[in-house]
């Protein structure tokens, strides 16, 4: 069960969010996997649950290590994950591998979306290693 409740009108706002960021390139601290997931959650729930404070990869990695990794950090905020990718729903946050490293993505209903060098990258749903419910 998610610790977050979606507000009325969340689905059109989330679809607009995906469209708005389709061509936004990856940028540490402003449009990386954590800031993207946090913004997607805010669009759905009206709550800002993460306020990332890093400007580059080294700072982000140091913080993740201090929190015992990305999965532990996400679980501390979102509650326990589920392991079955088949249960991922639109708007849920998922742990994936990007170039062999853990990353967060958001389920679009058909893919898992996350920031890439030229805009959103889309992975197949079965790329989700863990799923956190939103709503």
- CATH architecture assignment name: Alpha-Beta Complex
Could you say which structural class the secondary elements and strand pairing correspond to? alpha+beta
Low-confidence stretches: none
| Count of strand segments | 5
Give the N-to-C terminal Cα separation: 8 Å
Mean pLDDT equals 93
Output the CATH homologous superfamily: endopeptidase domain like (from Nostoc punctiforme)
User: What is the strand content?
Assistant: 15-25%
Largest sheet: 5 strands, antiparallel
Number of helices: 4
CATH topology: endopeptidase fold (from Nostoc punctiforme)
Shape type: globular
The radius of gyration is: 13 Å
Write the layout of secondary structure elements.
Layout: H1 10-20, H2 33-45, H3 57-66, H4 70-78, E1 93-98, E2 101-107, E3 112-116, E4 119-123, E5 130-132
Antiparallel strand pairs: 1-2, 1-5, 2-3, 3-4
Helix pairs in contact: 1-2
What does this structure look like?
The model has no long low-confidence stretch (mean pLDDT 93). A hairpin with a 4-residue loop joins strand 2 and strand 3. The protein has one domain: endopeptidase domain like (from Nostoc punctiforme) (endopeptidase fold (from Nostoc punctiforme)). The protein contains 4 helices and 5 strands. 32% of the residues lie in helices and 19% in strands. The protein is globular. The protein has 135 residues and is of the alpha+beta class. Helix 1 runs antiparallel to helix 2. It has a 5-stranded antiparallel beta sheet with strand order 4-3-2-1-5, with helices on one face.
């Amino acid at each position: 069960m998610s610790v977050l409740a979606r507000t009325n009108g969340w689905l059109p706002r989330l679809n607009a969010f995906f469209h708005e960021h389709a061509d936004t390139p990856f940028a540490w601290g402003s449009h990386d996997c954590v800031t993207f997931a946090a913004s997607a959650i805010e669009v759905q729930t009206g709550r800002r649950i993460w306020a990332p404070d890093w400007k580059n990869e080294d700072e982000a990695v140091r913080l993740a290590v201090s929190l015992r990794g990305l999965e532990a950090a996400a679980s501390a905020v979102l509650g326990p994950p589920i392991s079955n990718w088949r249960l991922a729903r639109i708007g849920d946050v998922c742990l994936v591998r990007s170039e062999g490293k853990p990353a967060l993505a958001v389920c679009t209903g058909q893919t898992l979306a996350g920031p890439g060098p030229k805009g959103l990258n889309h992975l197949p749903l079965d790329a989700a290693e863990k799923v956190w419910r939103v709503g």
